[in-house]
Request: fold
Amino acid sequence: MRHTITGTLTRTLRACGMASGISVFAATASPAQQGTKPTYKRDVPARLAREAKIPEDSAVAVARAKVPNGTVSSLELEREDGHLMYSMDVKVPGKSGIEEVNVNAVDGSLIAVEHESAATEAKEAKTEAAEKKAKHKQTPADTSSKP
Reply:
């Protein structure tokens, strides 16, 4: 399976004009699996990680190839609009806001690259925090009886 995924990612990189990043795909473990701590904020739920066919490092390599001067500041594995994707915030020195890079976690294809201004980024963070809080409130409390 790894050979097939590597081939798919190689073709994707070539199609995007990013063939120079191909050798990065030899690694198959995420930084956490390798025992190294990533330099970015990470939100990778275990249940979604089990569904991902593309390793985290490969998705990061696609983002770095697409935004070569950028630094990944956060990575989230999420399901959005029916797609399982790695969503990365990439900060570019000298540029305000961030580049949001979305990579398909099943086939490694680039879904989108979108610039978010600092104001848009702050609004999105506030919305996500509210959604997490609402989701947390929906979780039923422990109803077991205590002796």
In short: The beta strands are 41-43, 71-80, 83-91, 98-104, 110-116. Residues 2-136 form a domain with the Nuclear Transport Factor 2; Chain: A, fold (CATH 3.10.450.40). The helical segments are 2-15, 31-34, 46-49, 56-66, 118-138. The chain is about 35% helix and 25% strand.
